[in-house]
Specification:
454 residues, alpha/beta, Rossmann fold, 2 domains, six-stranded parallel sheet, 13% strand
């Protein structure tokens, strides 16, 4: 099938590459010429395992192309995916200007029937706005509104495992309406996703609004589990319990399960923070206050400073002339995404207290440097107290303690003898509970995890 992907960011690139991998002819368009130039020169503007190789393979096979030509992109695809950004507005609601702009571009250029798919994460009611924008543009040219049908097909991709998630999905959600054009759109989507359902049916068909709400509900549920476990971990610290034992005890209940029950420094990234906020704002628009989600957000913001609180309790509020090694900058492993990353808050708070920070991350350091320049724009002197090094052990040289923020696999089994040799003091503040407290004690390391009782 001929498919157009509008927006060559995270969701758009993964969607385009994976659909091309299944034999579709995919046209990816973006308004950013620099991004398209990178892609056409063989690069990839984001880090995602397996994505670069998949893009290279399908470009070479002629099934995947990148362009800034909007008219050509609309002409190409019988199915038009809108996969542009929906950043949070000032009030926390989703900013739909890019989604609506994409819809208007489709309406301005289309001359044949199109199935328009909302792949971006959008609040309930967005499909109506997309359809209204397209129809308005069609009517300006005297064309029938029946040429377009709008589908909601939210993405459920985990950063760091997005290619695998797309190619082997646990579910595909498709929202259509029961009109003639809606039934046509449903059939087109069924054909497109048929290769992903060969082993067993993974597709859930529903109305458009239910599909839109499903995406937000899924992310809100996962964020709630994370904040709930962080609350319990902080309580475990106070009462002397071990949150890892608690996790195993409740996770063994089939009604609960083990997923997303790990305590840490809070969630970040491009999805959970903005989606929880946007869902809350949608509820407020309808006169409903989602109190649980308000608490989830408050707990998460507080959790980003939990390691700083532990450091302050150990060393005092004045950290002048102290130096901390920090392992992990990205909000999670296998990505270079620094959006809402806890590391940014931790670094800022340590510098505010006078400390130096020496950081290492396997892939996120270039993006982290850009983000920290933004964070410290009003405090350039503070930024001078932050440095980045080429390997994790180099970061430890002469530091007063190690702070672990992201659970990269490379951090799970370090050379502890070398670690002890390089650190000024044998202290680890572990924001991801990578190590066993008893094992650390045997090594002579003062270990402070999140809810881990020695």
């Amino acid at each position: 099938m001929k498919v157009t992907i509008i927006g060559s960011g995270y969701v758009g690139l993964v969607t385009g590459a994976c659909l091309a991998e299944q034999g579709n002819n995919v046209f990816c368009v973006d308004v950013d010429p620099k991004k398209i130039e990178i892609l056409n020169s063989g690069g990839v503007p984001i880090y995602e395992p397996g994505l670069k190789e998949m893009i290279e393979r399908n470009r070479a096979a002629g099934r995947l192309q990148f362009s800034t030509d909007i008219a050509a992109s609309v002409a190409h695809g019988e199915i038009q995916f809108i996969a542009v950004g929906t950043p949070p507005d000032e009030d926390g609601s989703a900013d739909l200007q890019y989604v609506v702009a994409a819809a208007r571009n489709i309406g301005r250029h289309m001359t044949t029937p199109k199935v328009i798919v909302d792949k971006s994460t959008v609040p309930v009611g967005t499909a109506d706005k997309v359809q209204a924008a397209v129809i308005e543009e069609l009517q300006k040219r005297g064309l029938s509104p029946e040429l377009c049908s709008v589908v909601s097909n939210p993405e459920f991709l985990k950063e760091g495992a997005a290619v695998e998630d797309f190619m082997r999905p646990d579910r595909i959600v498709i929202g259509t309406e029961s009109t003639p054009s809606g039934l046509h759109a449903k059939e087109q989507m069924r054909k497109l996703y048929a290769p992903f359902n060969r082993h067993h049916e993974r597709t859930y068909y529903m109305d458009v609004k239910s599909a839109e709400l499903t995406k937000y509900a899924a992310n809100a549920m996962l964020a709630t589990r994370i904040s709930f476990m962080n609350e319990l971990a902080n309580l475990a610290d106070l009462v002397g319990a071990d949150i890892e034992s608690v996790r195993q005890g409740i996770g063994s209940d089939s009604r609960i399960g083990y997923g997303f029950l790990y305590s840490g420094t809070g969630y970040g990234g491009s999805c959970f923070p903005k989606d929880v906020s946007a869902l809350s704002k949608t509820a407020i628009e309808y006169g409903r206050d989602l109190k649980i989600l308000d608490a989830v957000e408050a707990v998460n913001e507080a959790q980003k400073t939990i390691l700083v609180e532990k450091i302050e309790k150990r060393f005092g509020k004045d950290l002048l002339n102290m130096k901390f090694a920090l392992w992990g900058l990205a909000f999670k492993p296998n990505t270079d995404d620094m959006r809402e990353a806890p590391s940014r808050v931790i670094i800022s708070e340590l510098v505010k207290r006078g400390a130096q920070v020496v950081a290492y991350d396997p892939v996120a350091m270039p993006e982290a440097l850009h983000c920290l320049e933004v964070d410290f724009k009003d405090n350039p002197e503070g930024l001078k107290r932050v440095s980045m090094v080429a390997n994790p052990m180099e970061a430890l040289d002469g530091c007063d303690a190690l702070v672990i923020v992201t659970e990269w696999k490379a951090f799970r089994s370090p050379d502890f003898d070398l670690l002890l040799e390089k650190l000024k003091r044998p202290i680890i503040f572990d924001g991801r509970n990578l190590y066993e407290p008893t094992a650390m004690k045997e090594l002579g390391i003062e270990y402070q995890g999140i809810g881990r009782h020695n």
